[in-house]
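Justification of resources, computational component.

The compute hours requested in this renewal are based largely on the per-chain cost of generating structure records like the one below. Each record pairs the submitted sequence with a full C-alpha coordinate output. That output is archived, and it is also reused by downstream analysis tasks.
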Amino acid sequence: MTNDNQGIQGTPTNPEAAADGVRLQKVMASAGVASRRVSEEMIAAGRVRVNGKVVTELGRRIHPDSDLIMVDNVAVQLDTSRRYVMLNKPVGVVSSMQDESGRPDLREFTDQFEERLFNVGRLDAMTSGLLILTNDGDLAHVLAHPSFGVLKTYIAKVEGRVSAQTIQLLQSGIELDDGPISADKARILASPPGDGFSLVELTLHSGRNRIVRRMMEAVGHPVVDLVRRQFGPLHLGTLRVGDVRDLTKAELGQLLTVSRAETKI
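The structure output for this chain reads:
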Protein backbone atom coordinates (compact mmCIF):
# COMPACT_ATOMS: atom_id res chain seq x y z
CA MET A 1 0.00 0.00 0.00
CA THR A 2 1.37 3.42 -0.87
CA ASN A 3 2.01 5.93 1.88
CA ASP A 4 0.73 9.13 0.24
CA ASN A 5 -0.92 10.17 3.49
CA GLN A 6 -1.01 9.09 7.07
CA GLY A 7 -4.72 8.35 7.47
CA ILE A 8 -3.80 4.67 7.53
CA GLN A 9 -0.12 3.90 7.23
CA GLY A 10 2.85 5.16 9.19
CA THR A 11 6.41 4.12 9.97
CA PRO A 12 6.77 3.66 13.75
CA THR A 13 9.55 5.65 15.33
CA ASN A 14 11.17 5.36 18.74
CA PRO A 15 11.75 8.32 21.09
CA GLU A 16 15.38 8.62 20.07
CA ALA A 17 14.59 8.67 16.36
CA ALA A 18 11.92 11.28 16.98
CA ALA A 19 14.28 13.64 18.80
CA ASP A 20 14.19 16.05 15.86
CA GLY A 21 10.41 15.89 15.55
CA VAL A 22 7.62 18.03 16.98
CA ARG A 23 6.38 17.93 20.58
CA LEU A 24 3.40 15.64 20.88
CA GLN A 25 1.15 18.18 22.60
CA LYS A 26 1.83 20.72 19.82
CA VAL A 27 0.93 18.16 17.16
CA MET A 28 -2.28 17.30 19.00
CA ALA A 29 -3.25 20.96 19.27
CA SER A 30 -2.52 21.53 15.56
CA ALA A 31 -4.72 18.54 14.70
CA GLY A 32 -7.59 20.06 16.66
CA VAL A 33 -7.65 17.43 19.42
CA ALA A 34 -7.52 20.00 22.23
CA SER A 35 -5.55 23.03 23.35
CA ARG A 36 -1.86 22.45 24.07
CA ARG A 37 -2.46 22.57 27.81
CA VAL A 38 -5.36 20.10 27.70
CA SER A 39 -3.31 17.89 25.40
CA GLU A 40 -0.56 17.84 28.03
CA GLU A 41 -3.10 16.74 30.61
CA MET A 42 -4.28 13.95 28.29
CA ILE A 43 -0.70 12.77 27.80
CA ALA A 44 0.07 12.81 31.52
CA ALA A 45 -3.11 10.83 32.21
CA GLY A 46 -2.00 8.06 29.86
CA ARG A 47 -4.79 8.67 27.34
CA VAL A 48 -2.48 9.08 24.32
CA ARG A 49 -0.79 6.35 22.28
CA VAL A 50 1.92 6.81 19.68
CA ASN A 51 2.29 3.89 17.31
CA GLY A 52 0.26 1.75 19.69
CA LYS A 53 2.24 2.53 22.86
CA VAL A 54 1.05 4.74 25.72
CA VAL A 55 3.09 7.91 26.05
CA THR A 56 3.11 9.91 29.30
CA GLU A 57 6.24 12.06 28.96
CA LEU A 58 5.46 15.64 27.95
CA GLY A 59 8.78 16.05 26.17
CA ARG A 60 8.05 13.32 23.64
CA ARG A 61 8.62 14.39 20.06
CA ILE A 62 7.04 12.71 17.05
CA HIS A 63 7.03 12.92 13.27
CA PRO A 64 3.51 13.93 12.22
CA ASP A 65 4.08 12.62 8.68
CA SER A 66 4.82 9.06 9.82
CA ASP A 67 3.70 8.46 13.42
CA LEU A 68 0.20 7.32 14.36
CA ILE A 69 -1.63 8.88 17.29
CA MET A 70 -4.65 7.64 19.21
CA VAL A 71 -6.47 9.45 22.02
CA ASP A 72 -8.74 7.33 24.21
CA ASN A 73 -8.19 4.52 21.69
CA VAL A 74 -9.60 6.64 18.83
CA ALA A 75 -7.36 7.45 15.87
CA VAL A 76 -6.38 11.05 15.12
CA GLN A 77 -5.72 12.41 11.63
CA LEU A 78 -2.62 14.60 11.74
CA ASP A 79 -2.71 15.60 8.07
CA THR A 80 -5.07 18.58 8.00
CA SER A 81 -5.00 18.66 4.19
CA ARG A 82 -7.20 15.57 4.09
CA ARG A 83 -10.94 16.01 3.75
CA TYR A 84 -13.75 13.58 4.45
CA VAL A 85 -17.30 14.26 3.27
CA MET A 86 -20.56 12.34 3.58
CA LEU A 87 -23.00 12.46 0.67
CA ASN A 88 -26.58 11.19 0.59
CA LYS A 89 -26.44 10.16 -3.05
CA PRO A 90 -29.70 10.58 -4.96
CA VAL A 91 -31.18 7.97 -7.26
CA GLY A 92 -30.11 8.56 -10.87
CA VAL A 93 -26.56 9.69 -10.06
CA VAL A 94 -23.74 7.35 -11.07
CA SER A 95 -20.80 6.79 -8.72
CA SER A 96 -18.25 8.30 -11.07
CA MET A 97 -16.41 11.59 -11.39
CA GLN A 98 -17.11 11.71 -15.12
CA ASP A 99 -19.68 9.49 -16.76
CA GLU A 100 -18.84 8.66 -20.36
CA SER A 101 -22.54 8.40 -21.21
CA GLY A 102 -23.29 11.88 -19.95
CA ARG A 103 -25.44 10.76 -17.02
CA PRO A 104 -25.49 12.84 -13.81
CA ASP A 105 -22.33 12.08 -11.85
CA LEU A 106 -20.61 13.05 -8.60
CA ARG A 107 -19.05 16.26 -9.91
CA GLU A 108 -22.27 17.98 -8.96
CA PHE A 109 -21.31 17.41 -5.33
CA THR A 110 -17.49 17.60 -5.45
CA ASP A 111 -17.08 20.80 -7.47
CA GLN A 112 -17.97 22.89 -4.42
CA PHE A 113 -14.80 21.75 -2.61
CA GLU A 114 -11.28 23.06 -3.20
CA GLU A 115 -9.81 19.60 -2.71
CA ARG A 116 -9.95 16.99 -5.47
CA LEU A 117 -12.33 14.49 -3.90
CA PHE A 118 -13.24 11.03 -5.10
CA ASN A 119 -15.73 8.43 -3.95
CA VAL A 120 -15.00 5.51 -1.63
CA GLY A 121 -16.61 2.52 -3.29
CA ARG A 122 -19.74 2.72 -5.38
CA LEU A 123 -23.51 2.71 -5.26
CA ASP A 124 -25.37 1.76 -8.43
CA ALA A 125 -27.30 4.54 -10.11
CA MET A 126 -30.68 3.39 -8.77
CA THR A 127 -29.47 3.08 -5.16
CA SER A 128 -29.43 6.12 -2.89
CA GLY A 129 -27.73 6.70 0.41
CA LEU A 130 -24.40 7.08 2.17
CA LEU A 131 -21.33 7.60 0.04
CA ILE A 132 -18.00 8.89 1.35
CA LEU A 133 -16.01 11.44 -0.65
CA THR A 134 -12.38 12.06 0.27
CA ASN A 135 -8.87 12.86 -0.95
CA ASP A 136 -7.33 10.23 1.36
CA GLY A 137 -6.23 7.48 -0.99
CA ASP A 138 -5.05 4.96 1.60
CA LEU A 139 -8.23 5.17 3.63
CA ALA A 140 -10.32 4.86 0.48
CA HIS A 141 -8.44 1.71 -0.48
CA VAL A 142 -9.05 0.04 2.88
CA LEU A 143 -12.72 0.96 3.10
CA ALA A 144 -13.57 0.02 -0.48
CA HIS A 145 -11.52 -3.15 -0.95
CA PRO A 146 -13.61 -6.32 -0.48
CA SER A 147 -10.80 -8.11 1.36
CA PHE A 148 -11.12 -5.74 4.33
CA GLY A 149 -14.82 -6.48 4.77
CA VAL A 150 -16.15 -3.16 6.05
CA LEU A 151 -19.81 -3.61 7.04
CA LYS A 152 -22.56 -1.80 5.14
CA THR A 153 -26.23 -1.62 6.10
CA TYR A 154 -29.05 -1.21 3.57
CA ILE A 155 -32.80 -0.79 3.81
CA ALA A 156 -34.62 -2.39 0.91
CA LYS A 157 -38.23 -1.98 -0.12
CA VAL A 158 -39.07 -5.26 -1.81
CA GLU A 159 -42.01 -6.89 -3.51
CA GLY A 160 -44.18 -9.27 -1.51
CA ARG A 161 -44.35 -10.29 2.12
CA VAL A 162 -40.98 -11.39 3.49
CA SER A 163 -41.15 -14.25 5.98
CA ALA A 164 -38.93 -15.16 8.91
CA GLN A 165 -37.83 -18.20 6.93
CA THR A 166 -36.59 -15.97 4.14
CA ILE A 167 -34.60 -13.89 6.62
CA GLN A 168 -33.03 -17.05 7.98
CA LEU A 169 -32.15 -18.14 4.45
CA LEU A 170 -30.46 -14.81 3.72
CA GLN A 171 -28.34 -15.20 6.85
CA SER A 172 -27.50 -18.86 6.37
CA GLY A 173 -26.50 -18.30 2.76
CA ILE A 174 -27.73 -18.56 -0.81
CA GLU A 175 -26.03 -19.38 -4.10
CA LEU A 176 -25.64 -16.72 -6.79
CA ASP A 177 -24.06 -16.95 -10.24
CA ASP A 178 -20.75 -15.65 -8.86
CA GLY A 179 -20.73 -17.84 -5.76
CA PRO A 180 -22.33 -18.20 -2.33
CA ILE A 181 -23.29 -15.19 -0.23
CA SER A 182 -24.85 -14.61 3.16
CA ALA A 183 -25.94 -11.52 5.06
CA ASP A 184 -24.13 -10.76 8.30
CA LYS A 185 -27.47 -9.58 9.68
CA ALA A 186 -30.98 -9.39 8.30
CA ARG A 187 -34.31 -8.37 9.76
CA ILE A 188 -37.81 -7.42 8.72
CA LEU A 189 -38.73 -3.79 9.39
CA ALA A 190 -42.23 -4.01 7.94
CA SER A 191 -44.10 -6.85 6.29
CA PRO A 192 -47.79 -6.01 5.81
CA PRO A 193 -50.32 -8.73 5.03
CA GLY A 194 -51.20 -9.40 1.43
CA ASP A 195 -49.03 -9.06 -1.63
CA GLY A 196 -47.78 -5.53 -1.06
CA PHE A 197 -44.25 -4.44 -0.19
CA SER A 198 -41.94 -5.24 2.71
CA LEU A 199 -39.07 -3.33 4.26
CA VAL A 200 -35.95 -5.36 5.00
CA GLU A 201 -32.68 -4.30 6.63
CA LEU A 202 -29.56 -6.11 5.45
CA THR A 203 -26.03 -5.77 6.81
CA LEU A 204 -23.18 -7.35 4.91
CA HIS A 205 -19.47 -6.90 4.26
CA SER A 206 -19.48 -8.03 0.64
CA GLY A 207 -18.61 -5.45 -1.99
CA ARG A 208 -19.87 -7.48 -4.93
CA ASN A 209 -21.77 -5.64 -7.64
CA ARG A 210 -25.50 -5.04 -6.93
CA ILE A 211 -25.30 -7.68 -4.22
CA VAL A 212 -28.39 -6.69 -2.23
CA ARG A 213 -30.57 -6.53 -5.34
CA ARG A 214 -29.33 -9.91 -6.51
CA MET A 215 -29.81 -11.52 -3.09
CA MET A 216 -33.38 -10.34 -2.77
CA GLU A 217 -34.16 -11.34 -6.34
CA ALA A 218 -32.82 -14.82 -5.60
CA VAL A 219 -35.21 -15.28 -2.65
CA GLY A 220 -38.20 -14.09 -4.66
CA HIS A 221 -38.48 -10.49 -3.46
CA PRO A 222 -37.19 -8.06 -6.11
CA VAL A 223 -36.01 -4.69 -4.82
CA VAL A 224 -38.20 -1.68 -5.55
CA ASP A 225 -36.14 0.89 -3.64
CA LEU A 226 -32.73 0.62 -1.96
CA VAL A 227 -30.93 2.95 0.46
CA ARG A 228 -27.55 2.52 2.11
CA ARG A 229 -27.94 3.82 5.66
CA GLN A 230 -24.62 2.86 7.20
CA PHE A 231 -21.02 2.45 6.07
CA GLY A 232 -18.68 1.11 8.74
CA PRO A 233 -19.17 3.32 11.81
CA LEU A 234 -20.90 6.08 9.83
CA HIS A 235 -24.68 6.56 9.85
CA LEU A 236 -26.64 8.59 7.31
CA GLY A 237 -28.77 10.08 10.07
CA THR A 238 -30.96 13.00 9.00
CA LEU A 239 -28.81 14.06 6.03
CA ARG A 240 -31.22 14.87 3.22
CA VAL A 241 -30.99 13.32 -0.22
CA GLY A 242 -28.55 15.34 -2.33
CA ASP A 243 -26.89 17.02 0.65
CA VAL A 244 -23.24 16.77 1.68
CA ARG A 245 -21.46 17.54 4.94
CA ASP A 246 -18.00 17.15 6.42
CA LEU A 247 -17.54 14.32 8.87
CA THR A 248 -17.40 15.37 12.49
CA LYS A 249 -14.15 14.83 14.40
CA ALA A 250 -15.81 11.96 16.25
CA GLU A 251 -16.92 10.31 13.00
CA LEU A 252 -13.52 10.76 11.43
CA GLY A 253 -11.84 9.28 14.49
CA GLN A 254 -14.11 6.23 14.33
CA LEU A 255 -13.48 5.82 10.61
CA LEU A 256 -9.69 6.04 10.97
CA THR A 257 -9.79 3.64 13.91
CA VAL A 258 -11.68 1.06 11.86
CA SER A 259 -9.28 1.55 8.94
CA ARG A 260 -6.18 1.06 11.07
CA ALA A 261 -7.70 -1.99 12.72
CA GLU A 262 -8.47 -3.49 9.32
CA THR A 263 -4.85 -3.07 8.25
CA LYS A 264 -3.66 -4.37 11.65
CA ILE A 265 -1.58 -1.34 12.43
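The helical segments are 24-30, 36-44, 107-110, 137-144, 164-172, 211-218, 249-262. The two ends are 13 Å apart (CA to CA).
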